[in-house]
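Per-record layout

source: Salix dunnii
name: DUF241 domain-containing protein
length: 310
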Amino acid sequence: MLKIVSMAAFSPKSTPPYNVRSVSFPARSHPSLAKLEEKLIKISSWQVPTPLKAETVLGRLSSLGEIYKCIEDLLNLPVTQQALLQHQNEKLVDDMLDGLMRYLDICGKTRDAALLMKESIRELQSALRRSKAGGELSIQSNVNAYFSARKKMKKEVAKSLASLKHADNIFEGSLLLSPSDHLLSAIVRVLREASLITVSNLSSLLLFLSVPMLKPRRSKWYLVSKLVHKGVLACEGQQENLNELESVDAALADLVVPNSGKDFEARDIHSVQKRLETLHTSIEEIENELDSLFKHLIHARVSLLNILSQ
């Protein structure tokens, strides 16, 4: 028997990211099922690094796309379709469709929020290029717009995280199988495992995007004191302790530290621009991975609907 340890969704307050579950599969699996099992085993061994950076999130999204490509192949097999139709368990398929629809909704909303963030970053980059001295009056409105976009994204992320909390129990109690139903049992269990990993990896994405926002107050740039208090007003050599969003916050703080030299200001503007470009690239790559995952989820859902229509 082949054992697989699953990865459960984690919340900002949870410490280990995974709950351990044991799922058994037949020793002789169909190649498509075996391929999916192998990928799930690999992903279930991943740990969540601190800080959570874009590279980790991108890797998880890419792997999710591969998982749902395998699920699509599995659902298109005649033996899988026959097993699902033979038992005529509508709740099982309905649960699968509900889960896929929930993930599609989260992917779509997160992608839309990422587009707004990209636009805000571009506007801030443009304002910095136009500013000769980099004074706060010439760029403050654009910085405010940037933080406003962050705030909107955090609201959408909070809604999506709440939705994911209801998705980690998909398939629970949906099917009581006979011990002789080896194939269908394996199919259900591997799809349940894929659902748990989907919840966990989408949570990683959402938590990355909802990193605490260090916003300056309207009357004064208090961001500096906040960052100093939290120990994140870092020099270039300490940036490994920040993710891409926190790095931009720190750079914006450096930009408004009182100073008397224009060269220092120019250096700060360059630092902000560099980190904004890194963040822009990261969000664009996340957007692309979300597009790819969205397509795989659509294809898997269509495969399920085709089974129902038989």
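summary: Residues 1-28, 217-237, 258-264 have pLDDT under 50 and may be disordered. The beta strands are 2-5, 22-25.
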